[in-house]
Amino acid sequence: MTTTPAPPLLDSTGTGLHAQVAALRNTSATKVTLPDGVTAWAITDGLIAKKLLIDKRITRNPTHWTRGRPTPEPGWLMPWTSPSMFNAHGGDHSRLRRILSKTFTKRRIESLRPAIEAIVHTRLDALAAATAAAGKFVDLRSVFSYPIPITVICDLLGVPADQRPTMAHVMEAAVNTSLPPDQAAANSHTMAQAMAALAVFKRAYPGDDLTSDLIAIHDTDDDRLSEEELLATLLLLVGAGSETTVSLINHAAVNVMTNPAVRQAVATDPEAWGDVIEETLRLNGPVMFLPLRYTTDDISFPGGITIPAGEALLIAFAAHGRDPLIHREPDAFHLDRDDKNHLAFGHGIHHCLGAPLARLEAHIALTGLLNRFPDIALAVESGQLQPLPSFISTDYTNIPVTTGQGTA
């Protein structure tokens, strides 16, 4: 009697994620095991991944997940299968995307610049105060980079002050793929409650904010935006508007602090920050695997592999930037790299609407940080930085730094 070996366990701790992805790249598609025994096909070849993102035989709609879908679904899956624009397909996706697209026009995003600058200034003051109080190193992530995107998106959504700590906590937990099943389920429940509480508050106290706008659309025309879609869209906005931008700011800051030539380049030419951000998005894409996509038809891959219709897929977005068949010296940071092509914000119809906002926040945060603290440095070797326990986010758990004297 022979038995089929279980699919390899995907690294949920983040510690060996890039190494595992590089190993998986040896095959065009590999079935892997996720938390709670969920299985999916990992796609880590950069060229194949990019093609699949525009393949009409691939959908984000979980109703097509007919092979291996667990019943009931484990709690950690809830944010990734809820009915938002994130998971919609076809006409539903177009309908939901149109609702949000007016918020993320180039003009409206640029209008947020003064507010973002004020938020960054406040966090720079907090970083200076934390340094003075600690007398040695401080955590750049918790004091500076993490509060900026969550504050920006909470301001945009009109989240009241007393609800913001819960928002921040559940979003961090949502990308933690090493939580025990009961904690993951509890976090998903808290997440749903938080979105419902925000909707209740904004119905009672509407304002000039995106949540109030979405509620008005729903209350006027339920066919255009259902209550379930409203809450899922709020969840999407908070999650997509915070975690990925935090990771971008952190990785870019580390890249500058560990590359003297790059630090000199941005000090000499502020325009170089654009290249820093794009090269960081290539080398350190904020998202590795983003659950989930599904096959609507059988799909054949090189090497004689066929994925049947109804299976779940995990596409490795960050792997594209480190694929040696796409980029020279893919694991090195090159500011002058000609081709900084990446999938950090997706590709095709699901390309992130908030990408320009993420870039703007990162640019303002990073220029402010290095202008205020030109001598900022890591307090540990870069290899000692600990990753978040996640196969979703590539961020760090903390970033100990010394800030130097700083400027006024």
From TrEMBL:
GO BP: antibiotic biosynthetic process
Keywords from the named record: Heme, Iron, Metal-binding, Monooxygenase, Oxidoreductase
InterPro entries with a match to the protein in the record: Cyt_P450, Cyt_P450_B, Cyt_P450_CS, Cyt_P450_sf
Pfam families membership: p450
This protein's record includes keyword Oxidoreductase: yes
Gene3D superfamilies: Cytochrome P450
Record GO terms (molecular function): heme binding; iron ion binding; monooxygenase activity; oxidoreductase activity, acting on paired donors, with incorporation or reduction of molecular oxygen
Organism superkingdom: Bacteria
Keyword Nucleotide-binding: no
Entry similarity comment: Belongs to the cytochrome P450 family.
Protein name: Cytochrome P450
Organism of derivation: Phytomonospora endophytica
